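Q: Convert this sequence to structure tokens.
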Amino acid sequence: TALGVLALSACSVLPKGAPNFSLHDFGPLEPAGSRTLAFPIRNLEVVPAPWLASTAMQYRLASTQETRRQAFLQSRWAAQPGQLLEVSMKRSVRANVTSVTVTGCRLRVDLDEFLQVFDSESASRGVIEARAALLTPRTDQLLAAKSFSVSHPAPSADAVGGVVALRQGVQQLNDELIAWLDALALSGVGARCGN
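A:
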């Protein structure tokens, strides 16, 4: 019996199998367009709110529990939403920069919200809220700031539908960010970033 107890205790220390959940990212996004930025961006950083600093795919039941954040058990992001968004934004901005530079403004994006909101049992949408700040090259003085709020309907009321909606939201956010930077260039603000 001692041998049997030893065998059972050995089984209990064996590593458990990996949890059975799906990992998601944004997949390939459409290019931001053929526009090029008229001023250099030295660094782009996305800073997530504390409640977004995990790989959990979060959702909210707006009709019944609007103050409660919940997470899907069988689905996760491949990285924290802020990290995925930063990679996506850097691709968009770099695709619109004519040359690599070591000078330029710093672009900081605070990610305040990134989740799926269920307005009913059968209808949901992906919601992204962010604030962008353009900072001067050496002193980090604020040159311009803008808030963004994006909402896209989900094709299905589940985690996969939320991924699709948030992916579309990221695409729209990237496009709006580039358009804002273009407007700053036209207004002359971008000239303080150097060339």
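The CA atoms of residues 143 and 189 lie 7 Å apart.
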